[in-house]
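Continuing from the previous page...

OK, I double-checked the sequence for Leukotriene A4 hydrolase against my notes and this is the correct one:
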Amino acid sequence: PDLRLRVDFDRHVIKGKVALTVEALEDSFSALTLDTKDLDVTSVSANGQPASFSLGPRHSFKGTPLEVTLPFDLSRGQHVIVEVSYETSPSASALQWLSPEQTAGKKQPYLFSQCQAHTCRR
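Thanks. Re-ran it with the corrected sequence; updated structure tokens here:
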């Protein structure tokens, strides 16, 4: 995957865009489900064309499914590049934000991620 991130220390969020290459395993492939947790999904595209998307019901542990409908059908073996633009939540459990005062040098803020296997997607 191709991943681009922009960290906003003032708002405690990360704006991101990920490009996933997906291969159709069957004919007439036109939809996929991705896993999210506390993300604000702003847009989805497939091979550069806008794709419709919706977020399913939120589950406290499993997260929220992102349902993507491609603007075209794929045949078995074909590939599509799905791009998802999103923003994390300030309360994302895997992201830890430190103010400059909390760091050793006391001059710059700091961000790190820490999670267990079941929370790494958050």
